[in-house]
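Could you show me just one protein sequence together with its fold in token form as a worked example?
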Amino acid sequence: MKRHLERELNKLRKKILTLGAMVEGSTEKAISSLMRYDLKLAREVIERDHEIDHLEVEIEEDCLKILALYQPAATDLRYVVGILKMNNDLERMGDLSVNIAERATYLANQKGTELFLDFTNMWEKTRAMVKRALDALIKMDPQMAREVCAADDAVDEINREMLNLIQDHIEDNPQEVRHLIHLLLASRHLERIADLATNIAEDVVYMIEGEIIRHRTEDYTHQD
């Protein structure tokens, strides 16, 4: 029985990592479409989201089957529960990527703005968080997961800076308000993706240590 359970957990791990790679790719394309005003790339993100949804449903069904057939306990139970939560977070990342692509679709047909917003920097930091959260899962490394949680503050700060820049620019350029709102929403969607990467990292800590660290304000980079 234990050997069968281990085999099923390994399959589950491979599927969640596949989903993570699909979501990472979707988010990267969505940001690229926004920065380049690339309508074709934006549509690709929107049209292929059903593939992410399909795999998310499949993983959820696998988790429920494992719980019903093997009734795992302790570490194995936390692992399956953690995968269920990650699965949901990754699917939401995919949805947020679609939201960004939809903003890009609108902006591709509009006159641009001279306001510079550093989406490249924000995306690089967010992408690093998503990648390291998945690496922490692969390596089952709680310290790496805590570092992902600590990195979220930098993305939050960039999001606040963008909000301030956009507010100031709207005062002098009210004719651009619709355009700028779409950019502001894209920034907010990207900031939410970073939040979901934090959720995944928190779940990695829970899987390994059985400790729930969400809703804490402590320095995540230090272990006791």
Residues 78 and 207 are 5 Å apart (CA to CA). The two ends are 35 Å apart (CA to CA).
